[in-house]
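Lab notebook, bench 4. We co-purified these components, and the gel suggests they stay together. Before we commit to crystallization screens, I want a quick structural picture of the whole thing.
Request: model the full complex, all chains together.
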Amino acid sequence: MIPGKYRSVSGRAANNVNCGLHLVIQTSSLPEKSKVEFKLNKETPSFPGRLLQHDLERNYSSRQGDHINLASSSMPSFPILQRSSEEKILYSDRLTLERQKLTVCPIIDGEEHLRLLNFQHNFITRIQNISNLQRLIFLDLYDNQIEEISGLSTLRSLRVLLLGKNRIKKISNLENLKSLDVLDLHGNQITRIENVSHLCDLRVLNLARNLLSHVDNLNGLDSLTELNLRHNQITFVRDVDNLPSLQRLFLSFNNISTFESVCCLADSSSLSDITFDGNPIAQESWYKHTILQNMMQLRQLDMKRVTEEERRMASVVAKKEEEKKRESHKQSLLKEKKRLTINNVARKWDLQQHRTPNIATNQDTKVSDSPSQDPSQLHGSAVVSAFPEETGSLDSGLTSALQGLSVTDTHLVEVDGDTLSLYGSGALESLDRNWSVQTAGMVTTVSFTFIEFDEIVQVLPKLKMKFPNSLHLKFKETNLVMLQQFNALAQLRRVDQLTIDPQGNPVVNFTLWKYYVLFRLSHFSMQKINGTEVTQNDMIMAERLFGILAHVASSELPQYRLISILGDARKKQFRYLLETKGKKPGLVNEDNNDSKRLVGENTNRATLNYTTRDFYNERLEEIKEKKKFCKMYMEDLVKEATDINMKNEALQKLWPQMFIELVRDAVIEIRNKNSYMKLCLQQITDQK
Amino acid sequence: MLSPERLALPDYEYLAQRHVLTYMEDAVCQLLENKEDISQYGIARFFTEYFNSVCQGTHILFREFSFIQATPHNRASFLRAFWRCFRTVGKNGDLLTMREYHCLLQLLCPDFPLELTQKAARIVLMDDAMDCLMSFSDFLFAFQIQFYYSEFLESVAAIYQDLLAGKNPNTVIVPTSSSGQHRQRPTLGEASMLEGVEASLFYQCLENLCDRHKYSCPPPALVKEVLSNVQRLTFYGFLVALSKHHGINQALGALPDKGDLMHDPAMDEELERLLVQIPGLVNSATANPEASCLPSRTPPRVGSPWRPLHHARKMDAESDGSTEETDESET
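Here is the predicted assembly.
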């Protein structure tokens, strides 16, 4: 009859009902022994369906035999209870009306010193007619149909109130029950804990199997040692640290999933016994050690003793978790920074690509078009680069695999194991840094994003020098538009794989681009292009398509052109190198040899070069001067030639006449031989 | 040699007509640019090589556009060079977009303007759907007309516009017989929705143009032939007809006939020789690479994903081109 846990309250079974603190309840032999009498009011029709005359008569007479007398009463509709005086003397302080099929509380007359009243297993819907029992200490209404706590306001001595398995929706009307020691409200429909703050003597509170979704409002329960909240829907627990005496807390079969939702338990120094089984939190891998770590005072968890070993493990694991969390927080911060930077670079790139005369509006539309890009960029503060730019310090502290080396709002350089990623044209400057041999040696893939290909071309020699093992090049959003541009890659030492992302590289739309790459870079023996392997057939096709071009480019060019083109390439490389800072003269020779070797490698393709548009125009500008000079020079020559020609023609015309005159003059001179001889002699003497 | 008409022209004009000065200027300019290199082996040799290459038509390779455009001979040489270098692309059967052809042009001339290619494409595509694919021969012949006769075509376009603008749907005009005026109204029927201009009228204007024009024009007789076949024609119709006319092509002399477009035995031989030298093609008899072409070739690495090797001869077969192409449809 009485739930077993309460038996242990005193530890011994005794018939002593008189002790104030220890309530001992006799076990179930009571109901049979009690002899009760019921008086029934026969005139009652109007009690709304709860009192069934027939039932009462029938049942009572069968159960209790002839000890029950149902007598009419003065009050409408309530039965009046009377016991035989024999009974009254024997069991003066207790009355059991268990399983009497009562639907209402009967009026109990002449039992004012009653201490224990048992109404278990009935159909009572309201607590009534017990206000006169002011000495009542123990009231048991377990398993009835009570919907509201009421009618208890006079029971100031009540210590144990058992209202389990009813239909109570709200805790209320307990104001006067200040001596309450045990309150059992399990199996009801209570949704909130309230109106219990005055129960400062309450030691056991049972709210299992209710509809609680959270726990709070627990202040004032200074004596509470046991709180049973099993089988509810609790998601978070608060205020438990306000319970100074709480030792046992049962939260099995609720909806707790994180420790944060019950974090107040950590602050409760009195708690020694707690259960969480049946909650989502108990399924987590970190459950046990988190609880143990946070609740060092715990002795039992889920009804099992907590050993020292477990506690130690818990703290170790907790420490590790902390470390990991900190690390991953750092990582995620770094990742976020990177993401922002990349977004920023992308935005700048887009602006660059869609250059219009009206830049302002373009910017506006760009900003509004891309709401997905992080709005925090509009605040535009430069993030200081994560690592300083000096030489040695790059190596220190680069332990983690992910290294964000330079993060500003305009470009990003990142080395991730074997991949060097460059975002934004500012990133190209980072190639000038002094990279450690180890780091540089490990890099096998270089990825360029949001950088103009023409700018990349200029740093390829540097790349070759600083990252000798880079075999895989990736280009995304680099504005590759012409097949010619691939010629520039020929100057590298070696490329195994090439990945040209279609995004931002229109050249990929051409049908022949792969074959051209294979043809021009055939000396690399490339393995893969855009992830697909290069087959023998591909190479053959490439050669077949463009082989004649190579032949023409090499063998049909006049010698001086060949030299000038190749010389140009060499000169260009030197020029690019000279523009870097910290150039050492010794390197010149190395490159000299390099380019000589390059020339020797692939003569028939070496003339296929790529000059960036800017350099080309520069060169044409330079040539203009020369052209002007040449033109003038030629004009002079032509003038001279035409003059001579004119004179020649004139001479041709005049010559016959002149000849005749010459002959005539000569003949006239010689007509007189003597005078001619004299003339000649005269001329000779004159000459002296 | 000493024909009377040659002597009839004054000096400058004679030189200009033969573009001698252009080449001389260019030669001297080249000399200046590369004097360190050229001084090594002698100026006389340089001039010899230069003019030899002019004769052979290789002087325009990788030169700037202004030079290529300068003389008709240069233009013709360029066309021929383009044909020779990329004939294999056409032979392969690929259809390319205008941009891709432009890219190929740029391989030979880095600053070739896009407008010219676009105009050529318009001829092929009849000014419609500029992103369409074109075959090599179509593009090449259209490009020839556009490039070689570009100034002439501009004038023709102007004339055509004039003729079009002069259209008056409700006017019946009596054609005059004089050929000197090219602002005549075309004869039209009443409810005319006819497009283009009348062929004979058009021809009269063109004939006039050819007489006056300084730049090169297609031979008038052939133009007449083109125009005599049709009653009316549009501008692009006219250009297409020009591009497809064998006679004009032969008169130009740069490209072979359409039927022979894919044939170039000398180059094919050369190509075979090159194909044989591809690394990995281990046909031991032919595996000694010619020193000049591939001196420091490293042997193919173990583990490279080569397909089973074919015999060198098999690849000569024409049919292999297309099947291999479809096999490689991973792009």
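The longest helix of chain B spans residues 72-91. Worth comparing against the SEC data before the next meeting. The two ends of chain B are 59 Å apart (CA to CA).
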